[in-house]
Task: inverse folding
C-alpha cells in the first residue's frame, strides 16, 4: 500500500531508523505543521477551546530528575479534535506555558475553558484583549477569590430562604441577577448531583469592586456530589440519598469532606467568566471542559499507550503523530460513524487498508 505513494527502495525503515529520524525532526516545526493541517480541516472560529496539560509518565524513566514531562493540549469541544499542543519546558509550568499556547491560537471569537491553574489575571486579560471569551474555574490554589465566591453564594442561598421583606438590602441587588440550576444522573456506578448557582452582577468580588478587574460578567459556584451506587447481598439497591450521604456516608464509604478536587465525593468550585451566562450555561461549559480528560487524555493512554512510552528525545514528535492518528479517527467517526468509540474505529482501520490509504494520501475536506 505504501509503495503506491512512496519510494521505499530498502523497504520499511526499522524501528531504530524511525527513532533516529524522529529525534532529528524539529519538534516545534512539526507541531506548527500539525496545527496548520488541523486548521485547514477545522476552521477555528466561534468554537469552544479546552486547554489542559497531560504528563508523559513513561518518559520520566529516562529524564535525570525523574519528573514526568508535560504536554499542554488544546481541543475543540464539539468535535473533540486536537488543534494544538505545546511541550512544557522542565523549568517552567502550565501557568507560563498557557500564554505561549494562546499566542499560537486564533483567540478572536473563541471561548476558552481552562482548569484553575489558568485562572490568572495575565491569561484572562490576554484572552479578552484579543476578542476571545473565557470560563475559568476557581479553586483553593487561589484562596482569597475561592473563599470570597463560596462565602457569597452561601449568603445568597441563606437570604433566599428568608421572607422577601427580611432580606438584606445590600444582598437584594445580587439576588435580582441570581440564577440556579441543578440536575441528577447515574454515571459510571455513581449517582451524580450537580447544583450550579450564578450571578451576573460581579461587583461583590473585591477585584471588581476596587476596579482592578473590569471584565468579569458572571460569577458561579458549582457543588457536585457523587454518591456511589451500592447493593446488598441479594442485589437490592441500597444507594442512599444525597442528604444522607453528606451527613453519614454509605455502608462502604465514609461521609465525604468538601473539596475542590475533580474526583472528590463532595466537590465545590468557583467559576468566573467575561460572558453573561445562566447557571445552566455555566454548568454546561464546566462539564464540557472535562471532555479533554475523558475523550483525549484517557484515549491516549488506553488506546495509544502513551503512558507506557519511554521515548525521551522523540517524545514530542511521537505525541504529534499520535494526535494526527487520533484526529483522523475522529474525522471518520464524525462523518461516517457517529457513536463509535476510538478503539472500535482503530479496529476498523486495521481491517480496511483502503480507508487508511484514503485518509493518509488523499485531501481531507474541511468541515466548513
Result:
Amino acid at each position: 500500500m505504501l509503495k503506491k505513494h512512496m519510494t521505499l527502495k530498502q523497504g520499511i525503515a526499522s524501528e531504530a531508523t524511525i527513532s533516529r529520524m524522529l529525534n532529528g525532526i524539529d519538534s516545534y516545526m512539526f507541531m506548527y505543521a500539525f496545527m496548520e493541517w488541523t486548521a485547514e480541516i477545522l476552521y477555528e472560529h466561534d468554537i469552544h477551546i479546552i486547554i489542559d496539560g497531560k504528563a508523559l509518565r513513561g518518559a520520566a524513566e529516562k529524564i535525570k530528575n525523574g519528573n514526568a514531562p508535560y504536554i499542554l493540549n488544546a481541543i475543540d469541544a464539539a468535535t473533540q479534535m486536537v488543534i494544538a499542543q505545546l511541550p512544557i519546558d522542565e523549568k517552567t509550568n502550565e501557568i507560563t506555558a498557557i500564554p505561549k499556547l494562546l499566542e499560537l491560537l486564533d483567540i478572536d471569537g473563541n471561548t476558552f475553558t481552562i482548569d484553575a491553574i489558568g485562572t490568572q489575571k495575565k491569561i484572562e486579560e490576554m484572552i479578552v484583549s484579543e476578542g476571545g471569551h473565557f470560563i475559568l474555574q476557581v479553586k483553593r490554589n487561589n484562596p482569597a477569590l475561592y473563599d470570597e465566591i463560596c462565602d457569597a453564594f452561601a449568603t445568597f442561598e441563606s437570604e433566599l430562604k428568608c421572607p422577601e421583606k427580611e432580606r438584606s438590602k445590600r444582598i437584594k441587588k445580587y439576588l435580582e441577577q441570581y440564577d440556579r440550576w441543578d440536575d441528577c444522573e447515574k454515571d459510571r456506578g455513581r449517582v451524580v448531583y450537580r447544583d450550579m448557582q450564578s450571578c451576573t452582577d460581579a461587583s461583590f468580588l473585591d477585584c471588581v469592586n476596587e476596579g482592578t478587574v473590569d471584565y468579569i460578567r458572571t460569577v458561579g459556584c458549582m457543588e457536585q456530589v457523587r454518591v456511589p451506587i451500592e447493593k446488598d447481598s441479594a442485589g437490592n439497591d441500597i444507594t442512599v440519598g444525597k442528604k444522607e450521604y453528606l451527613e453519614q456516608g454509605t455502608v462502604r464509604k465514609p461521609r465525604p469532606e468538601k473539596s475542590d478536587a475533580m474526583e472528590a465525593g463532595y466537590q465545590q468550585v468557583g467559576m468566573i467568566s467575561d460572558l453573561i451566562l445562566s447557571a445552566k450555561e455555566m454548568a454546561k461549559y464546566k462539564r464540557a471542559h472535562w471532555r479533554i480528560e475523558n475523550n483525549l487524555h484517557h484515549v491516549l493512554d488506553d488506546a495509544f499507550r502513551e503512558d507506557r512510552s519511554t521515548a525521551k528525545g522523540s517524545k514530542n514528535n511521537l505525541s504529534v503523530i499520535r494526535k494526527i492518528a487520533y484526529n483522523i479517527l475522529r474525522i471518520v467517526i464524525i462523518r461516517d460513524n457517529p457513536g463509535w468509540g476510538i478503539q472500535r474505529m482503530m479496529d476498523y482501520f486495521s481491517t480496511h487498508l483502503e480507508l487508511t490509504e484514503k485518509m493518509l494520501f488523499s485531501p481531507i475536506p474541511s468541515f466548513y
